[in-house]
């Protein structure tokens, strides 16, 4: 799967895990013990988010690319 949505990845001390959020898909986030695991997990969650939205007849936002700036 080719991810075109912006991913926000950070370490959470509270969860002792990397957290990945997808700002363009409300509520879409995943975690993992490593950076790579978190990204791999969010790829699955993004597809599930899209599949669920399609099943419910909801619109799926088009990826806009970079949303945030450092």
UniProtKB/TrEMBL annotation:
Domain called HicB-like antitoxin of toxin-antitoxin system: residue spans: 6-64
InterPro entries per UniProt: HicB-like (IPR031807), TA_system_antitoxin (IPR051404), TTHA1013/TTHA0281-like (IPR035069)
Pfam families to which the protein is assigned, alphabetical: HicB_lk_antitox (PF15919)
Protein name: Type II toxin-antitoxin system HicB family antitoxin
């Amino acid at each position: 799967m080719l991810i075109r949505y912006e991913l926000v990845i950070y370490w959470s001390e509270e969860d002792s895990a990397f957290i990945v959020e997808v700002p363009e898909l409300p509520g879409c986030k995943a975690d993992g013990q490593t950076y790579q695991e978190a990204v791999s997990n969010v790829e699955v969650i993004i597809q599930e988010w899209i599949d669920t939205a399609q099943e419910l007849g909801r619109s799926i936002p088009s990826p806009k690319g970079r949303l945030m700036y450092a």
